[in-house]
Known about the structure:
- Chain A is an alpha+beta fold.
- Chain A has helices at residues 23-34, 89-98, 108-113; strands at residues 44-49, 54-55, 59-60, 65-66, 74-80, 117-120, 126-132, 135-142.
- In chain A, the strands form two sheets. A six-stranded mixed sheet of chain A has the order 2-1-5-6-7-8.
- Chain B has a single domain (23-150), classed as CATH 2.40.50.140.
- Chain B is of the alpha+beta class.
- The A-B interface holds A 1, 3, 7-13, 58-59, 61-66, 84, 86-88, 90-91, 94-95, 98-99, 103-105, 108, 112, 152, 155-160, 162 and B 18, 72-77, 79, 87-90, 92, 97, 99-100, 102-106, 109-110, 112-114, 116-117, 129-133, 137.
Amino acid sequence: xxxxxxxxxxxxxxxxxxxxxxPDMDSEAEKAISSIEAHPSxxxxxxxxxxxxxxxxxxxxxxxxxxxxxxxxxxxVVHRHVNSDSSNNRLARxxxxxxxxxxxxxxxxxxxxSAPNYFETPSGAFRVLEYTDEAWRVRTISGDAIPTNWHPRxxxxxxxxx
Amino acid sequence: MxxxxxxxxxxxxxxxxxxxxxxxxxxxxxxxxxxxPSNIDYxxxxxxxxxxxxAVPDRYHEQRVSVVGVFELYYDRISLxxxxxxxxxxxxxxxxxxxxxxxxxxxDMDEMANWxxxxxxIDGVFNASMKNFAxxxxxxxxxxxxxxxxx
Lengths: 162, 151
């Protein structure tokens, strides 16, 4: 299983204008996620509203969190990717590697709330998913640098070349 | 050629060749499949339209459901859309997330990758509270099966 290229026809929704973090937001996001205790097998997250209020998720699993929040008031979200809970070692290893990048659905907060989506990876890197010049961009704030280009289809699994 | 060489050759050949006779169903044991129907915690499997699931997810919270929808595969989860139009539009509010079955391996992922954009049946326990922009999440997945009209 790899994530390469688009096979499905889904165009993926995009924001209507640029969605960008800034140095103040970066440090606010880093502070927000470090104030939440990490869970070994479940994501942790917080949505930060424009008035500074922090909204905790309703629940989280190994691959995501769900919020009840006024989308018009969200300034940014920040979440923590965790190691896969798959019992298959090869699948877990690939999943952990993929979780160094944004995951399935991580583009929805930027698209629907115009809110940058910050995330901490299993290796401890801190990155943000942004949208600028009609393209998605992953900016690394701390930790190992990775390619900045990303597209929601990169999270899809497609047939491996044999 | 001695016997050991022959076994080695056959093993290597099998590993290199694509699998013949593609599977159309992936099945995993779960707590529910191993439970006797007489058990007080047993949940009967109910055939539910994905349209109902998306429209009134709370009605099916924690129920064991069998649902047919259009399949998308990610490296760590599945999404199931109401229709091919919704799949093509990437319309998250008209879909449900589905956890990967716990017993699968990379070969199963390859098999399922052939089903993207097609109708698939999924059996599992629905969690209406785990929305993440969708109607909910099907957890404890027992069956992922290519729908008969897509074979």
